[in-house]
Design a protein that fits this description.
The protein is mainly α and 142 residues long. The chain folds into 2 domains: 2-81, no CATH class; 94-140, no CATH class. Helix content is 56%, strand content 11%. A hairpin with a 2-residue loop joins strand 1 and strand 2 (111-114). The radius of gyration is 25 Å and the shape is flat. Residues 116-142 have low confidence and may be disordered.
Length: 142
């Protein structure tokens, strides 16, 4: 068990340091790229300046995507730690997932009916699943 724990500790250390060595400090890198972009003249028509601007913009987009992914992972971890808290953040999170639970067909006489907006059809808009603790259930009948 001690050997397993030691191997796990080495793995965790390697993963943590690998991200820092590969990506560096993401917010400071974004600030550095923004300053570099502002220092390059926008209206200069020389190809080397325009290519340099394109390169900086490409790197800036890459690092801002990294930052967004980082914040998404952090919010997911926070949600998992306090999943039963009733806050505005968790409510908005649940609303954004509503489209995943959407039903696109109705049921009439235990036969599927395409659409769900057909007159006389009972259509369930969203389903509640006990694995997903957030969800809205309502039914529309004609």
């Amino acid at each position: 068990m001690v050997i397993l724990w030691a191997n796990f500790s080495v793995l965790v250390h390697a993963l943590r340091s690998g991200g820092r060595e590969t990506l560096g400090n993401i917010p400071s890198k974004i600030n550095q790229l923004r300053e570099e972009l502002q220092s390059l003249p926008f209206d200069d028509v020389r190809p080397n300046i325009q290519n340099q601007r394109k390169s900086v913009l490409k790197d800036l987009a890459k690092y801002t995507n990294y930052e967004e992914e980082l914040w998404a992972q952090r919010s997911r971890v926070n949600w998992m730690k306090a999943r039963d808290s009733n806050t505005k953040f968790f409510h908005n999170y649940a609303k954004s997932r509503g489209w995943r639970n959407k039903v696109t067909r109705g049921v009439q006489s235990s036969r599927p009916v395409a659409g769900g907006n057909i007159r006389g059809c009972h259509s369930e808009g969203y389903l509640f699943d006990e694995r997903k603790t957030f969800g809205t259930f309502y039914s529309v009948g004609y």
